[in-house]
Structures are given as C-alpha cells and as structure tokens.
C-alpha cells in the first residue's frame, strides 16, 4: 500500500486572503473556495495543493513546520524574490538567526514563518 501527500493544510483567520497571498507567491491559483475551506494548486489534478482551514485562536509561537521556497539561481534572484514577497504582504521575522544563514525567514500576513533559501543546486554536494 502506498500513500502520498495530498494537501499541506494551513490554519487561517482570513481564508480567501491568505489563499490569494500564497497563490500569488507560488504562481498557483485558487482551485476551490468554500466557506470553511479554500484550496490552491497548480491545476485541479495536481498531486499536492495547499488547503486553508479556519481557526479562531491566535498564533502565538513559532511554527513547528514551515515551507522552504527556492528562487531561481541567477545573480540577485533571491534578493529580488524576497522583495517581491514583502511587497505581497510578507515580513521579515527573527526566530533566532545569527545572520550567517543561507536562508531568510519571512512570515505571511497571518504570521506563519517560511524561508527563502538559496537555489537547490548550491545545496547539493
């Protein structure tokens, strides 16, 4: 028996707003929008999507799980991508970095941390 990843689920206060933010970040689209669930992905048959579910409590601690995003490998692409994400509504956050990391920690409009890492090709080997 095999099992595969279906959705990554993110709790949210503003489901449509947070879904639109992440769709714009990833170049995806909203696939399904209901009162208590919004799903984004590349296309309806995509193997994995992100599902936004409602919560009433406020986020108070660092995420136990987060997304790592990789921009293109060209010169300056990482910095340009970070600036684009900030313009979309992300913000820089401090979770204890030393300043020498190969990643930058940001948070989405509801405070969920994620990282922009250097291109994957530079991490292998």
TrEMBL record:
**Residue limits of the VOC domain?**
4-119
Q: Which domain of life is it from?
A: Bacteria
**Gene3D superfamilies for this protein:** 2,3-Dihydroxybiphenyl 1,2-Dioxygenase, domain 1
Q: Which InterPro entries does UniProt cross-reference here? A: Glyas_Bleomycin-R_OHBP_Dase, Glyoxalase_6, VOC_core
Q: What SUPFAM superfamilies would the database entry show?
A: Glyoxalase/Bleomycin resistance protein/Dihydroxybiphenyl dioxygenase (SSF54593)
Database matches in PROSITE patterns:
VOC
Q: Pfam families, per this entry?
A: Glyoxalase_6
Q: Which residues form a coiled coil?
A: none
Specify the protein name. Answer: Glyoxalase
Give the species this sequence originates from: Embleya scabrispora
């Amino acid at each position: 028996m095999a099992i595969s990843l279906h959705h990554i689920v993110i709790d949210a206060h503003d489901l449509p707003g947070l879904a639109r933010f992440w769709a714009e970040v990833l170049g995806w689209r909203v696939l399904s929008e209901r009162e208590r669930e919004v799903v984004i992905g590349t296309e309806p048959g995509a193997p994995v999507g992100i599902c936004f579910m409602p919560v009433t409590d406020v986020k108070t601690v660092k995420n136990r799980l987060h997304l790592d995003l990789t921009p293109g490998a060209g010169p300056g692409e990482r910095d340009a991508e970070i600036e684009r994400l900030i313009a979309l509504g992300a913000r820089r956050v401090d979770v204890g970095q030393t300043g020498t990391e190969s990643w930058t920690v940001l948070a989405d409009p509801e405070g969920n941390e994620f990282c922009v890492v250097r291109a994957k090709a530079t991490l292998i080997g």
